[in-house]
What we know:
Layout: E1 3-7, E2 10-13, H1 36-54, E3 61-62, H2 64-75, H3 80-89, H4 97-112, E4 119-128, H5 136-144, E5 149-152, H6 159-171, E6 188-201, E7 212-217, E8 223-239, E9 243-250, E10 255-262, H7 267-273, H8 276-285, E11 287-296, E12 298-306, H9 308-313, E13 333-346, E14 350-363, E15 372-376, E16 380-386, E17 391-398
Parallel strand pairs: 1-11, 1-15, 4-5, 11-15
Antiparallel strand pairs: 2-10, 3-17, 4-6, 6-14, 7-8, 8-9, 8-11, 9-10, 10-16, 12-13, 13-14, 16-17
Amino acid sequence: MKRVKWIGLCVLLLLTACGQGSTQAALPVDKEKIDQQVLKGNQQFAFELFQQMKKDNQNVFMSPYSISVVMSMVLAGAEGETETEMKDVMNYGPLEDPLILDTYHNYTAHLQNAGEKVDIQSANSIWLDEAFSVKDDFKKDMTDAFRSEVFQQELSNQAIVDDMNGWVSDKTNGMIDTLIQKPYDGSVRMLLNNAIYFNGKWKNPFEESMTTERDFTLTDGTIQKQKLMFQEERFDYLETEGYQAVQMPYGEGDYSMYAFLPKDQPIDDFVMTFNAEEFRHTKESMQSTLVELTLPKFKVEYGVKSVKEPLMNLGMESVFSNADLSAMSDAGLYVDDVIHKAVIDVTEEGTEAAAVTQASVEESAAVEPQAEIFKADRPFFYVIADDEYDSILFMGTYEGEL
Length: 402
């Protein structure tokens, strides 16, 4: 076994929870109906979408899982070329809709039954304009498979602002209290929402007395003072020619943060080449090692961002223009935009994170040697995922206090 000194750069997060865990009633889970191909597709989609989101942006933080949920809700109403295109981009390929729906139904329950030391909450809702209706089968998929709440009101009325922001705040435990600033355009017929909240305590918490202000090197080489946490403990660890990686578990170890520190490569270059296959290989190759770990104490709020262009760049085009959403309604619908907001707070005790995604649907005419060093005193990449299913919940980069 090796001792490793770590000052992290690139972090893949898998989080377990703080506190007493969720107080909601346990949901039934049929694990045989959680299809690994669906989750593997989500993982690949997560890396591909993040690479699109990262272009020319710093401190990107997002929940690929939340975006996958909302786009899978849209997929349930898609037919023809739109359905094929969406499945290709989301890496579902030939998978049938019932299998995808069963997976989300049971996997969401799995997340929310994480246990007393883990608090993960995921909620869905559909909001229909006052006089608009959807097909019964689509509505049933939303309420049954996705456990969606259904609301109906005038989406262009000022009241929707408080109602929507109130729903978001409630489902993210107050971490995100504002999604929209004004009512929706009069052509919006339906909104599809997902909100996810995660709260996890480190299995090996950092001592506050060890947190000190030290140098953090920004992407452009500028030095800024930041609060860096420190501990020496055994972690699963891997070192390759290109990067170091460390796994930092939360709670009982069902969720973890995976941190990646590129050696001679800018963070943007690393993110653009690191993929789902490399992530799986890293996890499989890690070994227990004594690590001297330095990690920033930080909070990032990634404001409301449109995911439309990144999705179109991946090939999901027709759903935003000449869409076939005839399994939703015969009204001639298309997705006008997909917006996303996320926030993360990393402290000595653990990690708290939340995200919300919304698709707006409009109507149209159409062994103990010297310790290694893993020191996150420069930009790093992180992902929050579920260790049992390799499902990525959150993903981001931290590049200093911008």
